[in-house]
What we know:
With 204 residues, this protein is an alpha+beta fold. Helix content is 25%, strand content 41%. The chain has two domains: 2-97, PH-domain like, CATH 2.30.29; 115-196. The protein has a four-stranded antiparallel β-sheet, covered by helices on one side. Strands 8-9-10-11 form a four-stranded antiparallel β-sheet, with no helix packed on it. The two termini are 22 Å apart.
Amino acid sequence: MEEKKSWHNEIDFRCSFGMWPFRKTFEIAPGGFSWCGELYPLRFITRLRWGVDLRRGGVFPKRVYRTMFGTSDKEFIIKTKQKDFYEHLTDRLWKAVGKRLLSEMLEGLAKGEKFAFGDFTVEDEGITVTTKNAFSSAVQSYYTWDKLRWGIVNGSLCFAESGDSGKNLASSSFLWVDNAHVLNVAMGLLQSSKNKKKLSSAKF
């Protein structure tokens, strides 16, 4: 009971933003996400993404922190210039939904499911990269985890060949690609896992 109460406190969040008469309200609670009075149960939230959008103009770029959550057919975006607010919000989103999405992805991979992240697809034992060319049909190439290295570059999770060539293969933007943060956490778990052949073997 104490653990459940603690989780409730961890995800509890309320805010309002925007100018009147377009002011919006958002709440996170065990019952779901409430957007302007409309409730979306947590199990209906299937995608998250967030990141920093650098707006060019003038001497210094303007930083806009963007956070998105969505169901299968709707998405909602919160924009702010306040870093503390943004970090507080994304922490709540991860605890309320992100962990569940990670668990569901790992379970799905173990069953043979595939998950798309932009121009590549994640499978249990590696990724399939789709390369498009204006003069030929799309080509798909498969790489197992031991043939890859990965890391974060300019706000994206990037994959490259692990050999001497180090050729860049694919990337997934945290700002624009749904659940890229979920995949990033999974990759971190794989890195520390004893079984580095299957992503579904990662434990958290």
